[in-house]
From TrEMBL:
Single GO BP term: intracellular protein transport
Protein name: RabBD domain-containing protein
GO terms assigned for molecular function: small GTPase binding
PROSITE patterns: RABBD (PS50916)
Lineage, broadest ranks: Eukaryota, Metazoa, Ecdysozoa, Arthropoda, Chelicerata
Domain of life of the organism encoding this protein: Eukaryota
Record-annotated RabBD domain positions: 4-52
UniProt xrefs under InterPro entries: Intracell_Transport_Effector, Rab_BD, Znf_RING/FYVE/PHD
Signal peptide span: none
Length: 52
């Protein structure tokens, strides 16, 4: 990430649509990460409990 795009040739409406798509993509990625975490959680090793 961190790349910059020159969108000056696009209309405001086109820029708004692109932004909406990017925001939707980020939301979907976050939900998918959460979903996969809950699916994989039973298979991941649990951290060792320290007793003193």
């Amino acid at each position: 990430m961190g790349r910059r795009l020159n969108l000056s040739h696009l209309s405001q409406e086109e820029c708004d649509r692109i932004l909406a798509v990017i925001q939707r993509d980020l939301e979907l990625r976050a939900r998918e990460k959460e979903r996969l975490g809950s699916v994989l959680r039973p298979f991941l090793p649990r951290p060792a409990v320290r007793t003193s």
